[in-house]
Structure formats: C-alpha cells, structure tokens
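Feature request, filed as a ticket because there's no other form

It would be nice if the structure record came with a short human-readable summary line next to the tokens. Right now we just get the raw output. Example of a typical job, pasted below so the devs can see what we mean:
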Amino acid sequence: MHVPPFGYSRDEIRGELDAIRHPFRVAIDRSKNAFNIGSIIRTAHSFLVKEIVLIGSEPWYERAAMGMQRFEHVREVPSVEAFVALAKEEAWPLVSFEKDHATVGLWEAEIPEDAVLVFGNEDDGVHPKILEASRAVVGIPMYGINHSYPIAVAAGMGMAEWARRQYERGRVVGNVT
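Raw output as currently delivered:
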C-alpha cells in the first residue's frame, strides 16, 4: 500500500489518498454525539472510504475526528428526505444497519462493493424513510443482554466486514510499504 510522505500539503495528501480510496461510502443518520461522528470519521479514514455523508443537523465533530476529516470527503446533507433523493439520483445501493428492523444478518448480507453503509442515531436508529429506500437492512449479531452496539462500534464492524470481503484470505493488509 502506498502511503503519502510527510511534508505534502493537505490537498496533495488528499489527492494521493483519492487514488487508492475504496468505492464504498458511510452515511451517519442524525447522530447527536460529536464523539461518535468523530470516531466514525477516523475509522472511515482508516478504511479509505470514498465519502462520508452526514445526514441532518450534525453536532460539531472536528475535534473528535482528530483532524482526519481534513483528509476525507465529508458531505453534509440537510435532511433525511434530501439524502433519500440524493441516493436515488446517484443510484447508491443503501445498506442500513439497524437491529430492530433487520431483515438479514451481517454474515449473510449482500454488501455491494460500492455500497453506502448507513448507521442511525443513538436513540432512534435509522430513519424509516431511509430503511424503505435501502437494498438491505442488516443486523449485527449480539450475544449478551446489552440493548445495542454503540454507533461508532457498529460502523467499525460494518466497515471491517466490507473490507474482509474484498481481500484475499491470508493476505496481510496494512499501511506498511
């Protein structure tokens, strides 16, 4: 894997990263916690997602992202309705992660290479209009008595599962050259 050298400008680094980005996106639906958003942005950066879409009025997240948002493509969409319209216009295959309305488990779910992985807010999950527009509504297995995974953890699990399916078995992947 090619890693841009230190000393590049922000735009040069972003350009280098754009050449090796993965084709999937992550969307965060109406999150109320800046630290969750920041954590997801940092994780999305580690997976080199194509874009991060923030749906609704998002809290200030820059500090929680520890600067990684500067190297990512972050798109803010003002409402659920605007996001659904954008997804339809762009023909994005939405794959929502939602425990209460899941129709397929994570291990069995079809996750297209260019999927938009959608994660809902901490209280209400993924908005029903987004669920309706989704190709799949995925549940992550839970074995304890806990009520749900934290959104940042669920997002990390979803991105890791996407990546696991892309790489050959036994191949070590990392940022070493």
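Something like this underneath would help us a lot:
The longest helix spans residues 151-166.
The chain has a mean pLDDT of 88.
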